[in-house]
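The authors assume throughout that readers already know how a fold can be written as discrete tokens. What matters is that the chain and its backbone geometry are given together, residue for residue. A single example would do more here than another paragraph of explanation. For illustration, here is how one protein appears when written out as sequence plus structure tokens.
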Amino acid sequence: YGTTWDDELWKVRIELEDPAQVFDLGFSAILDEGIDNESFGIAAMDIQIVPGAHENTRFVPDPNDLLGRERVTLFKKYAGCPDDAYGGRSHILTNDDFQDPGVPTRHRVRAGGQSNLSNCGSDNSSRYGYLDANPTIILDWDGQQRTGSGNRLQISTDDGNLGKDCDSMLYVEDPNGQVFYSNATSLGGFSSDLNVRLDMENAQDGRYAIWVGSYHSGYCNTDFVVDLY
């Protein structure tokens, strides 16, 4: 609604299955103007509880690994090896979202972390880069029954400077638990592109846990990009 400004009214529904006895519920927004001109509020909140029985033992993070909070979602961030039991920023995308060629989905993220991936088990011994335990992005992908060349999913990073401002890496677990890894798009001296790209032909439908790490310990900012190729 709104007359002078392009205001928007959203209705959000959040469902928590088998929640912890105590949990945080927070709201945040990405703003493209100063806080004096952009903000959001909650007009009404309704909480409904349906009793049930606990099924599996709940995952409980070690409080000693707490690093702080993710700046957009305000999820608690933890040090450690990649583990999709931790929370991450979620996105739902379908094949139809990319039927306008050359229009990818792009989000600014904080890449990197404190844990060296090569120390995270024998399967990762040859994979180098730093990340934290939480996935950067949880992507729910629906290929809408398209196959082959009609369902080629591309995940990449772009810092706007060939990766020289943010030398990132990608670590991805697909819906079947298969791991994909990349730490550079191309290497060729001064013209090297240190941004990263993963091409997945005939991408599986379902949940992708994605870590955007960095080649060096610490953090940097880059764009996380999803497209078809």
About this structure: The chain has a mean pLDDT of 85. The first strand starts at residue 66 and ends at 69.
